[in-house]
């Protein structure tokens, strides 16, 4: 695998789509939309200027604790190499962090200007994963993301 989009397609989106298929969640329309996005990944994720980095993989407020002396501690990692936009997109999708958290992240390590355009695409994996674990309404949110990119 030589690129981020290939990894994202083969190791993130396609396995989740297959889980949804096996669970009987995919209507023909939903599968068509999801596969349309998968086929468009080379173009949709082109031009990301950074190499993949180590990600927590499940960075939501429930996995952030404070140790003695207000030392931040991250727990329950699902570590993988990915693009850091994935981590921020996950945080923005599920929230729970204090006001200003994402802004401070951007101040210290700004994201590429194309991030806002790619954010829903990076959130699609997490939505698929939640759809497979928790059911609707995550399926409908997946459809909304796909329609956004295929419009």
Task: Describe the protein in words.
- This protein has helices at 4-22, 28-44, 84-94, 101-108, 115-134, 138-150; strands at residues 53-55, 64-67, 71-74, 80-82.
- It has 151 residues and is mainly alpha-helical.
- The chain has a two-stranded antiparallel ribbon.
- Strand 2 and strand 3 (71-74) form a beta hairpin.
- Helices cover 58% and strands 9% of the residues.
- It is globular and about 55 Å long.
- It is built from six helices and four strands.
Distance between the termini: 29 Å
Tell me about the largest β-sheet: 2 strands, antiparallel
Radius of gyration: 16 Å
Give the overall shape, derived from the CA principal axes: globular
Percent of residues in helices:
55-70%
Beta-strand residue percentage:
5-15%
Mean pLDDT over the full residue set: 90
Tally of individual helices: 6
Please tally the β strands and state the result.
4
Low-pLDDT stretches are none
Write out the strand line-up for the largest beta sheet, numbering strands in chain order.
1-4
Q: What is the SS-derived class?
A: mainly alpha
Order of helices and strands: HHEEEEHHHH
């Amino acid at each position: 695998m030589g690129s981020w989009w290939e990894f994202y397609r083969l190791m993130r989106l396609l396995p989740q789509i297959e889980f949804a298929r096996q669970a009987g969640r995919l209507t023909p329309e939903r599968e068509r939309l999801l596969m349309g996005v998968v086929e468009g990944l080379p173009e949709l994720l082109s031009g990301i200027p950074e190499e993949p980095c180590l990600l927590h993989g499940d960075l939501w407020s429930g996995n952030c604790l404070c140790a003695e002396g207000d030392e931040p501690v991250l727990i329950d990692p699902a570590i993988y190499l990915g693009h850091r936009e994935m981590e921020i997109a996950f945080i923005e999708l599920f929230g729970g962090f204090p006001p200003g958290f994402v802004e401070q992240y951007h101040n210290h390590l700004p994201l590429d200007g194309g991030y806002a355009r790619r954010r829903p695409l990076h959130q699609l994996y997490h939505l698929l994963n939640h759809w497979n674990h928790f059911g609707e309404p995550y399926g409908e949110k997946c459809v909304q993301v796909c329609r956004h990119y295929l419009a």
